[in-house]
Amino acid sequence: MRPGAALTATQGAQAIAAGSLSSLQWVEDCLARIGEREPSVQAWHFLDPQHALEQARARDATRARGNALGPLHGVPVGVKDIIDTADMPTENGTVLHAGRRPQHDAAVVARLRAAGAVILGKTVTTECATYAPGKTRNPHDPTRTPGGSSSGSAAAVAAGMVPLALGTQTNASIVRPAAFCGVYGFKPSHGLIPRSGILALSRSLDTVGLFARGLDDIALLAETLIGFDATDPDAQTRARLPFVQTLRTEAPAAPRLAWVKTPVWARTDAPSREAFSQLCAQLGGACEEVIVHGVTTAAWDCHRTIMEAEMAANLVAEWEHGRERLSPSLQEQLARGREIRAFDYLQALTQVPRLIARVSDVLARFDAILTPATCGTAPPIDSTGDPAFGTLWTLCGLPAISLPLLRGADSLPLGLQLVGARGGDARLLQSARWLEERLHTA
Amino acid sequence: MRPGAALTATQGAQAIAAGSLSSLQWVEDCLARIGEREPSVQAWHFLDPQHALEQARARDATRARGNALGPLHGVPVGVKDIIDTADMPTENGTVLHAGRRPQHDAAVVARLRAAGAVILGKTVTTECATYAPGKTRNPHDPTRTPGGSSSGSAAAVAAGMVPLALGTQTNASIVRPAAFCGVYGFKPSHGLIPRSGILALSRSLDTVGLFARGLDDIALLAETLIGFDATDPDAQTRARLPFVQTLRTEAPAAPRLAWVKTPVWARTDAPSREAFSQLCAQLGGACEEVIVHGVTTAAWDCHRTIMEAEMAANLVAEWEHGRERLSPSLQEQLARGREIRAFDYLQALTQVPRLIARVSDVLARFDAILTPATCGTAPPIDSTGDPAFGTLWTLCGLPAISLPLLRGADSLPLGLQLVGARGGDARLLQSARWLEERLHTA
To answer: Are residues B394 and B434 in the same domain?
Structure first.
């Protein structure tokens, strides 16, 4: 592996700023790594090496002119192929959108470019960011799924093809592929990153998320992307969150973690239970098992009702003009979604503030919730795995991060998920940093 | 009529600040006026004269101590009985809520009290702010409706019982009673006034509105009530709108008015058409007839779908525990609402930004839209009148004001409605001031 492929974004951006690395060299190293690993991993839906190299040369030329550099100047980033790019196709993982060329960059892509990033290419998504798998395979074992729906982004980062990638989560599409691929996957609070220019499935649930190989990189990318945008109706107006600075600052006290088994805990496999039980023992007094009262399996039903009703409304053109070319599972989802009563949909939405209140009771007493990211390591390639461990937190719009700190009995990555209070995204990363250091030094 | 009953809020607040009037005297004059007119008008659902007088005495005592005074110090205000008051019952116009005593003031009531207002009493609403009339009669003719659903608020202001009153609009419940009763009725842009503590019918449509006998009073009250509140999920974060100052400032140029006949224009009666045709002729070049392309009767269907679906979800307890004590019309509405598909509801919501875009095309070229507030003067007491002239503007969340500047052939008030751009509330009042002066001097 050439040196550039091992760099984190933070290291590489510093090296570019210092003049000890060119963006061109870094992108060439990433392309070389892709050349080695792509035949097995298949993370990319669109990649034009010449266009990536041109962007890198332009970034280097900007630096050579002595211009001020953005925080991601020259850093290659992969972008999930449901996120619009004006200079590359965006095909949303469906043949119905084959050849689609957006006119404009999505808001997040515009922010990446403004920060100096090189958009390396478009990563594979499942069909319309739902359940039908794309071509990507798990970099740790090609017979296993990388998880979905942000399959290519997680796999590309895990395989060392790119230091950073963007994805989206409507159920578990960040935390699950991050867990299966053994990278960091961060889903911020709902409403912090604008979604304009991204395939809409569910306004209530869709959230942009990030993949990286370290917490510093997660903080750097989050700080670049988070911010108000009036074109997203759920965008929150709030002061800029200083992620990078917060992560450099030690927490005033060791965080207290609430070990929460939700109603889907029963789905975890035996090696996961063993790994989590050891983890909690290792954390000792810093971690306390907590029951979240009032959270029943009804929360998962609410999520499905909201997601399927909103998906049916958003994918109406696909249904009307080509549903026979959608996967059977997506056709069934849309057919169900079209029959949901507004009454049941709105009743499900009214459950959300009640669930947030229940979880907030815990987060008032603890710094973060510690919980599995998946029910085990990556299953075989024919599915993208059970999303149930992301559902509750996505429904509540809470920030969640999957940390690659555990291994399963099969020695594949096992994700550990930390969940924070809504808007407490920077504090969540601080707790994650503490946990990571605690486990490394233990 | 005693002098206090004729005062505007602006005049009275100035007199109190100057020491030439006491709040007690003003409230006594209002109570005397209520004594004269209430047997015929029946505007009040709850009125405790002693409690009103106590509040007035407390306001006078505050002033006597030399404390700083709020903008509504000592001003009596009527509050629609779907708006919670911690010191008075709030029964929402239904026997199902008889004896209901809220624990907390609604956000708008808290703002009124913080501004120094005296909450005079609770005004009659139709059943759950929908269509079944309450006991209130039109102050100009007791055989006619005052309009609904903010019946008591409009009638109380029109009858000189109180200078200011609060209402709400989900379809036409501010502009219609204002038009029928011959007062100013202002529905600001959706999201400017917080709705916490108010009976929720439809989050997408519910808007707090104001009644007064002059534009200065509308500006004074709007400036007091408008402002962000995190407890209303649709609250807009924006700088304070200086209504009072804007209204004192002459517009830089004479506003240009777009005379818009929507698809419901055909419902207007012949005297209304004649009055509007004369008005437009009188305005000459300041007013131009404009067709709003893309606005079809589908907008009215969208409104009904959204309103009835959201009402069914919000009034679920009333349906489950006492629907037989609701009016047949409300029972039918709720039964329809419960059967609406989420798909149709969400499709209706997606029409809204498109309609706003159509109307915004006009409002980019004109200062305001001029259009009828109702299809004619107040009809007989057995209905609250046709709401169709409020529907489109409520659906689009645009600010609208009904101005009592016309009379029908029966010499009853006929409302003229001005509609502004979303967020252009202060400019709308400025256009209204210009129009009022133009018609008075013509």
So the answer is: yes
Point out which residues pair with A79 in neighbouring strands. Answer: A122, A166
B173 and B129 within one domain? yes
Which residues constitute the domain of residue A225? Answer: 3-247
What are the residues whose beta carbons fall under 8 Å from the beta carbon of A100, sequence distance 6 or more? A89, A90, A91, A92
Indicate the residue type of A189. Answer: S
| Contacting residues for A94 by C-beta, under 8 A, at least 6 apart | A127, A128, A318, A325, A326
From B337, B339, B342, residue closest to A345, measured CB to CB: B342
Q: Which of A193, A185, A88, A94 is nearest to A134 (CA)?
A: A94
CA–CA distance, B235 with B196 (Å, rounded to integer): 10
Helix (H) / strand (E) element for B77: namely strand B76-80
**B242 shares its domain with B263:** no
A residues 329..388 contacting B (CB < 8 A): 337-347, 350
Residue B9 exposure: Cα atoms within 13 Å on the Cβ side: 35
Q: Does A237 touch chain B (CB under 8 A)?
A: yes
The residue type found at B104 is H
My answer on whether B201 and B275 are in the same domain is no
Cβ separation B341–A343 shorter than 8 A:
no
Q: Do both A289 and A240 map to the same domain?
A: no
Residue type, B194: P
The complex scores an ipTM of: 0.91
- For residue range B176-214, what is the model confidence (pLDDT) as tens digits? 999 999 999 999 999 999 999 999 999 999 999 999 999
- Listed residue (A53, A51, A115, A122) closest to A84, CA to CA: A122
Q: Domain check: are A290 and A240 in the same one?
A: no
- Give the mean pLDDT of A325-340: 98
Q: Both B218 and B107 in a single domain?
A: yes
> What gap in Å lies between CA B158 and CA B185, rounded to an integer?
11
B298: left (phi over 0), alpha (psi -120 to 50) or beta: alpha
User: What amino acid occupies position B76?
Assistant: P
B289 forms bridges with which residues in the sheet? B259
B310 interface with A at CB cutoff 8 Å:
yes
Whole-angstrom Cα Rg for chain A: 20
Residue spans of alpha helices (H) in A42-160: 49-64, 107-114, 151-158
Interface test with chain B among A341, A347, A350, by most B beta carbons within 10 Å = A341
pLDDT digits (tens, 9 = 90+) for B351-375: 999 999 999 999 999 999 999 999 9
